[in-house]
Specification:
The complex is a heterotrimer. Chain A is of the alpha+beta class. Helices cover 46% and strands 12% of the residues of chain A. The termini of chain A are far apart. Helix content of chain B is 42%, strand content 14%. In chain B, a hairpin with a 5-residue loop joins strand 3 and strand 4 (93-94). Chain B is elongated and about 115 Å long. Classes of the chains: A alpha+beta, B alpha+beta, C mainly alpha. Strand 6 of chain A pairs antiparallel with strand 3 (388-389) of chain C.
Chain lengths: 394, 202, 391
């Protein structure tokens, strides 16, 4: 009569051991220790799992498992308009939402052929470089916290990050999920008061970066723990599609700001630092040096920003229906090459919306970098890749 | 020399330790809720509906065009149009929302609804202390909870509200001027029609 | 008056003893002193926990806890109540007896070390001729407790953590001993009271503390490094590393037993700082001859709290060393320096009074330090780097 609802008919039958990692054959008499690091772990920067096989302390095999933060971003984008996807891009690399917005806006502008006014280009550069500075400083801070310095340098980096986030809130209304770039420019204009505040913040940054560098550059324990660890050879990096500071730390000169000449980066005089060894120390020193170069760009941009509109008043904000076609827009995001590939079929929603996440692509060679190192080094190597799970899993 | 970096690091930490007693730069904590940071003018938390005047039902600017409902990315707005019309600020009879609900547990504060509204009727509020223990309806704001007066809007976003008021006043002035010229034209037409019939009659 | 203040606790003890018959007096006195130590140091532990959290907070540009009580002073009490009311989980497959005994053994052996520390003039619990030897015997026993904890949990990660901890503690035990032996050699006695008395003289207002000699300074630095490693404090806290893979040998402990491990670590810190103060910083003697009017026990406890503050300072600044780097450091760098220090101390004694011995001994130590340090760096290609920029 009234049978209690049995769920067994709705659950698919799964084979025994489907959710356990594949057993690793023992090597001779020495059995390997199988350990799962994560998803609950203080140093995995989010929900991420690594199945490690250890021989004593050395890593013999490493299998990364991600997808714990998958939120169907690309599928959702197929069901909503182009404008409505913009706030979702904020949440990809949630620490650098300005650059995510920029890459998406660039892709749509390529699709529709819209022009961007000059003031908007300057504002985009200013906000993008501010994002880069706060991302690099926090990445270094998190790396040192993973090393066990009980978060002190992290708190210092966050002091500066707070100032930058306050700037974002003053301009866009939100600290992290800014939703600021629009197709053809920016959403709102920056007032002269805001620009003055930005100049003040940028003026305080070089002293902080020097203080930070002094704390880190000559610390013997830091050097001993990070030099020679997690070496990534340049050929391997290029073959694996690694981009961003990780690639430049291995010595490959590839910065999309110089290669693609997107935006108005050609007007600024900045250098691209390169590393020689490709180890963890190089990666975080390159980030520090890049932060310095970004400060140079910021100072120049804040000085030269022209007056004018930030978006064409006749630009279509909603109801955008690009002509059928495809476009790939990419920028040098703080973590690497962030690209958006859009296919339009003439309708209000994209036909296909694909994100090229730098964190995921950079993560594919984690195993090669970690083999032969100790477990304690895995944490550092993972931290030096500088990922955000929002981007890896989308 | 070996050990120098460690000593420099120790000096830096000591500087921060002693500095935290003297400078605000080195102790940035704001002890909420006893101390609060003043909200930024541009801050956005969740939307609210603007009404002019004292009566929220009569003065509600929203005309139920449902553009915000369509454009909202997570689809957190639910609108039911009314069957009758009521006059708006310019005197034109408009629909109004019989139901206007926003589920703020879904809303992601993206402000697209504000951007696309042609009638300046939905704006972003800055209240964030909204937690409630009512799981099922506590975060579903209906028309009454969403309605806030224009004075409140001026309080939280002064520059923006001033600009909106200027725009609306300019619209009203244009509409009035058009009405005046239309009335004058109608009078002139009636006068010429009367003159024509009078001329015909004679 | 000064004398009374200085000896106030001794006089208090004699007065309390006088209520008892003569044959009971010494036993009762010892019991009373022991009870005082057992009550005092956990109270100091609460203070140290509070100091650590506030100190680390200030170093990180934030307040520490400040909600519970004025300035958060009641926070340790709140923490204590929390750990007492937590469920005591013993893993099913664990060795229950060993699991229970490990924290007990830790706390008992750690407190035993206080028996020979002179906390003021005439304020030693047990006057032993070989006090230092007794102290080290007790200190080594604490390592047993660590291993018992790791083994009894029947958990491969705890065992891994315990093995790492033991390896580290044994290596640095050798260093601790060798850096203390220098003091014994110069004083000529293993008794801690005699060591303090040997340092309680003044020349031109400055004390004869051993830290103010070249071999004493080197010895103190190495003792401090070894002390940090013995108590598993940062930068040597890999065995209990929070951001590492395993949570260490006390993974399987919850509630009060975990609190006992925590207590054991801090009281060990006090104990080893107390020994360091006695050996190198002059124990209960005042830093300048015009300050001898301040009671001796105040000096001892101030130096103790200063050492605790230095421990906290190190923790707030330095990242962790990896296990193999830690061991390398102990055996290849610190130990040879310790042996050289012994030789230098002997040379100091041999050369007799005068300025020449200062110059010679300092020179030898600095030279050795520089050459070993440079050698290590060059061998491992570790050092500051410069970076190039693309064209």
């Amino acid at each position: 009569m009234n049978q209690p609802h049995s769920y067994s008919s709705t659950v698919t039958e799964r084979p025994e051991g489907w959710n356990r990692p594949a057993p690793i054959e023992s090597r001779g008499e020495r059995e390997l220790l199988e350990v799962a690091m994560g998803p609950h772990h203080p140093s995995t920067h989010g929900v991420f799992r690594m199945d490690l096989a250890l021989d004593g302390e050395r890593v013999v095999r490493l299998k990364p498992e991600f997808g714990y933060l998958h939120r169907n971003h690309e599928k959702i984008a197929e069901g909503i308009s182009y404008l409505a996807s913009m706030p979702y891009t904020d949440r990809l690399d949630y620490t650098c939402s300005m650059t995510n917005n920029w890459a998406y806006a660039l892709a749509v502008e390529k699709l529709t052929g819209q022009e961007v006014p000059e003031r908007a280009e300057y504002l985009r550069v200013i906000l993008g470089e501010l994002t880069r500075v706060q991302n690099h400083l926090s990445a270094i801070g998190f790396l040192i916290q993973d090393m066990g310095a009980s978060g002190t340098p992290l708190m210092y980096a966050f002091r500066q990050r707070e100032k930058i986030l306050d700037l974002f809130e003053g301009l866009t209304g939100a600290r992290m999920m800014v939703n600021y770039m629009r197709f053809g420019g920016c959403r709102v204009d920056a007032s002269p008061a805001w620009l003055d505040e930005a100049r003040k913040v940028v003026a305080g940054l070089p002293a902080f970066v020097d203080e930070f560098e002094a704390l880190l550059r000559s610390n013997e324990i830091l050097m001993a723990r990070t030099q020679g660890v997690g070496v990534l050879r340049p050929e391997l990096a290029v073959n694996a599609g690694v981009t961003g500071p990780m690639l430049r730390a291995s010595g490959v000169n590839y910065d999309i700001r110089k290669v693609d000449h997107y935006g108005i980066y050609d007007r600024f005089n900045f250098r691209v630092p390169l590393g020689d060894h490709g180890d963890v120390y190089d990666r975080f020193m390159i980030r520090l040096l890049e932060a310095r170069e970004s400060i140079k760009i910021l100072e120049a941009a804040l000085k030269d920003i022209p007056v004018g509109p930030v978006i064409d008043p006749k630009a279509k904000i909603r109801g955008l229906r690009p002509k059928p076609g495809e476009a790939y827009g990419r920028i040098e995001a703080p973590k690497g090459e962030l690209g958006f590939y859009l296919i339009s079929d003439g309708g209000p929603n994209p036909y296909r919306y694909r994100v090229r996440p730098p964190s995921l692509i950079n993560l594919t060679i984690l195993e090669d970098m970690c083999l032969g190192h100790d477990v304690a080094d895995v944490v550092l190597i993972f931290g030096s890749v500088d990922i955000v799970l929002g981007e890896v899993d989308r | 020399m070996l050990g120098e970096g460690i000593l420099k690091g120790l000096a830096e930490t000591a500087r921060n330790f002693f500095g935290s007693y003297f400078s605000a730069e080195r102790l940035t904590t704001v002890e909420y809720p006893e101390q609060r940071i003043a909200p930024f003018e541009a801050a956005r938390v969740f939307p609210f509906l603007v009404y002019d005047g004292a009566d929220w039902q009569a003065g509600l600017r929203c005309v139920s065009c449902q553009i915000c409902e369509k454009e909202c990315p997570p689809k957190c707005i639910y609108i039911e149009k009314s069957k009758d019309k009521k006059p708006d600020a310019l005197g034109k009879p408009q629909f109004y929302p019989a139901r206007f609900e926003i589920d703020i547990s879904v809303c992601m504060s993206c402000q697209i609804c504000v951007e696309v509204c042609p009638f300046e009727s939905i704006k972003m509020n800055t209240e964030f202390e909204l937690s409630t223990s009512d799981r099922f309806g506590g975060l579903l704001l209906d028309r009454e909870k969403l309605a806030r007066s224009n004075q409140y809007y001026h309080q939280i976003h002064p520059t923006e509200a001033a600009a909106v008021d200027a725009r609306l006043a300019a619209d009203k002035a244009r509409a009035d001027a058009k009405a005046v010229s239309a009335a004058a034209a109608a009078v002139a037409k009636a006068a010429s029609a009367a003159a024509a019939t009078a001329g015909e009659g004679a | 008056m000064i004398e009374t203040c200085d000896q106030i606790f001794v006089l208090l003890l004699h007065w309390l003893e006088s209520f008892l018959p003569a044959s009971w007096q010494s036993v009762a006195g010892t019991v009373l002193c022991a009870a005082t130590i057992v009550c005092l140091f956990p109270a100091l532990f609460a203070l140290a926990v509070w100091l650590e959290r506030k100190g680390l907070g200030r170093m990180q540009n934030r307040f520490g806890p400040n909600r519970v009580g004025p300035f958060g002073l009641l926070q340790p009490i709140a923490d204590g109540i929390k750990s007492l009311t937590k469920e005591d989980i013993v893993p099913f497959s664990a060795d229950a007896a060993l699991h229970f005994l490990a924290p007990v053994v830790l706390v008992v052996t750690v407190f035993m070390g206080f028996a020979v520390l002179p906390m003021g003039r005439n304020m030693v619990l047990v006057e032993m001729d070989a006090g230092l030897l007794f102290y080290f015997a007790m200190g080594a026993s604490t390592e047993l407790a660590v291993f018992m904890a790791g083994w009894s949990s029947r958990n491969k990660y705890s065992l891994l953590g315990a093995m790492r901890a033991i390896a580290q503690m044994i290596s640095y035990e050798v260093v601790l001993l060798l850096s203390s032996v220098v003091v014994v050699m110069i004083t000529g006695s293993l008794s801690l009271t005699k060591i303090v008395e040997a340092q309680n003289h003044y020349t031109w207002g400055f004390p004869h503390w051993y830290i103010l000699t070249p071999w004493g300074l080197a010895g103190f630095v190495m003792y401090a490094i070894a002390a940090t490693a013995e108590t598993n404090r940062s930068p040597f806290d890999l065995p209990e590393g929070e951001s590492e893979l395993v949570a260490g040998y006390h993974t399987e402990y919850s509630g009060f037993k975990f609190a006992l491990f925590f207590l054991g670590e801090y009281v060990a810190m006090f104990s080893i700082s107390g020994l360091g103060t006695t050996l190198f910083l002059g124990g209960w003697s005042a830093p300048f001859s015009f300050l001898t009017w301040i009671p001796s026990w105040i000096w001892f406890f101030s130096k103790l709290m200063l050492s605790i503050f230095v421990f906290i300072w190190l923790r707030g600044t330095l990242p962790r060393l990896r296990q193999d780097q830690l061991m390398n450091f102990a055996w290849k760098f610190v130990l040879p320096m310790c042996l050289l220090n012994l030789f230098v101390a002997g040379l100091w004694r041999f050369m007799g009074d005068g300025w020449l011995r200062w110059v010679v001994c300092s020179a030898i130590l600095l030279l050795a330090y520089a050459s070993i340090a440079l050698g290590e760096q060059r061998r491992k290609h570790v050092g500051p780097r410069s970076y190039r920029y693309a064209e």
